[in-house]
Design goal:
By secondary structure, the chain is mainly α. The protein contains 22 helices and no strands. It is found in: Cell membrane.
Length: about 450
């Protein structure tokens, strides 16, 4: 960082870590509770006139459609995050997500209000997509820009931990409702609503915590000097479009496989195709989320030791090794096989997710960084995980085999690995506004670094 920008003290860093983890956990709990419910009940409650198979596809499609609005959310949050600050956008996106989620829990079904029910469901899902598109960038920049240079990988993994924690909370809450409080018809009648309505309590907690965190020191310095870019998105696409493409493809390699679990496909496959008990499947997903949490945490530490890119390449290699065995395990191993498959997926996912925040933050210049990381992440989600559950279901319906799904997952993984090889590891590069020239050069293997001394740690 520049001489005028210092890392937060240990107490502040702990407060920032807590705020980013808690806030992101709540945000992604809201997002994942929808994906879990889409595979379990929405086809019956909101799309039943289309017939069983088409209703399921429509239900899974709503999971993906929200991703189409994540870039818009990223554009808006990125613009205002680079102009008015990181912290304000963190609070706004959290409240928007929570309001949409709570309202979904109160929606009448198709049998009650007809076609208006799926339309309202889709509108609220779009609001979730807008929120998710903007939330991630703010959270990771608050974590990374407050951290000392040699701990950015670990600091960047804090908001990343909120994703598996949100998935754990969503899976656990749904398992509680399906298996204990409202099993069977009661879950279909009213039990599915409870996890959505609980969100209103979580939002209050997240709001209070996020309001207590200080603004990023990088943005504070930019604002003090009046160096905010007026239209950061235009600058981003005019000068850094190639970075957006390459970095988005890196995330495609992670999110395509990731949304096989978080998007509900593998759960739905185990329940409907392999006839496994719904609650047992959800418990298995919760256990996998714990593994994902720890592999993400470990990846943040590895990223500071062996570099961001090296950690990613190890993770992609593990992903490529499991895309064929996972369906064999689920198909032949019953519930134990499902546990094994989900654990194998989660290890590779963590290694290709933990270092993402630090790497993204280090490849974009300070004045357009919020726009850069948010839009790149949103594009990676759209072209990777957005429609992965629906595409996988279509491949299964068309071919009658899971082999086509495995080839699809392998292709996405190799695409991500190839993009990672095209980007430089920028560990240790200064993040402050005094170093924009250095930040703007040498981010890819095809461009020359103009400040090799400052990138001595590049691997």
């Amino acid at each position: 960082m520049s001489s005028s920008i210092t890392a937060a003290n240990p107490t502040s860093q702990r407060r920032i870590a807590f705020a980013t983890i808690i806030g992101t956990t709540i945000e992604w709990y809201d997002f994942f509770i929808y994906a879990t419910s889409a595979g379990l009940v929405f086809a019956q409650l909101f799309f039943q006139p289309a017939g069983k198979d088409i209703a399921l596809l429509l239900s899974l499609a709503t999971v993906g459609i929200s991703f189409l609005f994540r870039p818009l959310g990223a554009f808006l949050a990125g613009h205002f995050g680079d102009v008015i600050g990181r912290r304000a956008m963190l609070v706004i996106t959290l409240v928007l997500m929570g309001a949409a989620t709570t309202l979904i829990g109160a929606l009448p079904t198709y049998s009650q209000i007809g076609i208006a029910a799926p339309i309202l469901l889709l509108i609220l899902r779009i609001l979730q997509g807008l929120s998710a598109g903007g939330e991630w960038g703010g959270a990771v920049l608050m974590a990374v820009e407050h951290a000392p240079a040699n701990r950015r990988g670990r600091a960047g993994s804090w908001p990343q931990l909120g994703v598996p924690l949100g998935f754990l909370l969503a899976s656990g809450m749904t398992a509680l409702m399906t298996g204990v409080i409202s099993p069977g018809e009661a879950y279909l009648q009213w039990g599915w609503r409870v996890p959505f309505l609980v969100s209103v309590v979580l939002i209050v907690v997240g709001f209070v915590i996020r309001r207590s965190v200080e603004e990023s020191p990088v943005f504070t310095e930019i604002a003090k000097r009046g160096k905010q870019t007026k239209v950061p998105i235009v600058t981003l696409f005019k000068r850094r479009w190639y970075l957006v493409i390459l970095a988005a493809l890196v995330f495609v390699g992670n999110s395509t496989l990731g949304y096989m679990t978080t998007g509900g496909f593998l759960n739905n496959y185990a329940i409907n195709e392999q006839n496994l008990d719904t609650t047992s499947v959800l418990v298995a997903a919760a256990v996998a989320a714990v593994v994902w949490f720890f592999s993400t945490l470990i990846a943040g530490y590895l990223a500071d030791v062996i570099g961001r890119r090296n950690t990613f390449l190890i993770g992609f290699a593990l992903q490529a090794a499991v895309v064929f065995p996972i369906f064999w395990l689920v198909g032949t191993g019953g519930l134990f096989g499902l546990y094994a498959a989900l654990v194998l997926i989660s290890i590779g996912l963590g290694l290709t997710y933990g270092p993402l925040a630090a790497w993204y933050s280090e490849i974009f210049p300070a004045s357009i960084r919020f726009s850069g990381v948010s839009i790149t992440y949103a594009f990676g989600a759209v072209f990777g995980g957005a429609f992965a559950p629906m595409i996988s279901q279509m491949l299964l319906d068309t071919t009658g085999s899971t082999a086509a799904i495995s080839w699809y997952l392998l292709a996405a993984t190799l695409l991500g690995a190839g993009a990672a090889l095209c980007l430089r590891d920028r560990s240790g590069i200064p993040l402050g506004p005094d170093h924009e020239t250095e930040q703007a050069s040498g981010a890819t293997m095809f461009t020359r670094s103009e400040a090799p001394g400052a990138l001595a740690q590049t691997r």
